[in-house]
From TrEMBL, chains A, B:
This protein's record includes keyword Cell membrane: no
Gene3D superfamilies on file: 3.30.1490.190, Winged helix-like DNA-binding domain superfamily/Winged helix DNA-binding domain
The protein's assembly and partners: Homodimer.
Residues that bind Zn(2+): C89, C92, C129, C132
Record's subcellular location: Cytoplasm
Record-stated family: Belongs to the Fur family.
Cofactors demanded by this protein: Zn(2+); Mn(2+); Fe(2+)
UniProt protein name: Transcriptional repressor
Chief location category: cytoplasm
Residues the entry annotates as binding Fe cation: H83, E104, H121
GO BP field: negative regulation of DNA-templated transcription; regulation of secondary metabolite biosynthetic process
Length: 136, 136
DNA sequence: ACAGTAATGAGAACCGTTGTCAAATTCATG
DNA sequence: CATGAATTTGACAACGGTTCTCATTACTGT
């Protein structure tokens, strides 16, 4: 069920710069942050271009996207190419990648049980990370 | 006893209407949807008021908030009693309630594994129900 | 009833994101 | 290398959800 679509992407200076910038940061970055970083780095890239490419990369599974608490989309180079989820701290925003075969199976099974096909699922786990919990 | 923070909330027609509308829907609703529903229901409530109250309710833990894939905030009355999830058909909207102890345990375990506490989770499973699948 | 204070509503302001479209870049060919 | 077709880019406008502003209205305790 892996689906590398026939993606026809042309390698451009901008696209490379964006991927590069992203790969150098272990943290999640917003499109605006990347745009700013590229701007001050001399190699300016249009804001719209940054958005477009990040979206495309996310669609291709090259990067992870999550929404911050205030709805901003933030991206990060994928640590694993596989399908996975995140556990997000509602205190500091720390996000940890986790995989969970059991959830995948459960989702698939419970959907099939009711005759559903082409199943997709969204799982969000949030809590307080150790540091934030201690800090309260 | 833990408690009701000294929240000085005044009971108003608007606030009640919002809570009411929310409690009648098992699904997550956006502020705009609630605003629209109240509007056509005769008892109009200002959009800003809907936003303010939903935020307040969320802050007080009366309702759950999650962000849709496109960044919109959606709210749902807290199901303190029967915690369950839904499998929603993206064709016709059919929603089936399902429970899943395995998911609950997985979420708890995976969070604890990374030192997270006060864990909450949201799980949404979507696909095409049998009818819709056949119809394509 | 009355004053004090929280809540409301209409609309403007915000801000992240997406759309527009002409100009620039890339690729495949001749 | 020249050329043309198809992508991609970028500046800026437009969008949409959310928040802010502030005058007006509705509760509350006395």
């Amino acid at each position: 069920m892996t689906g590398q679509l026939p993606t026809t992407r042309r390698p451009t200076r901008q696209r490379t710069a964006i991927a590069e910038a992203l790969s150098h940061s272990p943290e999640f970055r917003s499109a605006q942050e990347i745009h700013a970083r590229l701007a001050e780095g001399g190699a300016g890239v249009g804001l719209a271009t940054v958005y477009r490419n990040l979206q495309a990369m996310a669609a291709d599974g090259e990067v992870d996207v999550i929404r911050t608490e205030d709805g901003e989309a933030v991206y990060r180079a994928c640590a694993t190419e596989d399908h996975h989820h995140h556990v997000v701290c509602r205190g500091c925003g720390l996000a940890v990648e986790v995989t969970g075969d059991s959830v995948e199976r459960w989702a698939e099974a419970v959907a099939a049980e009711h005759g559903f096909v082409q199943v997709r699922h969204t799982v969000e786990v949030e809590g307080l990370c150790g540091d934030c919990a201690r800090r309260r």
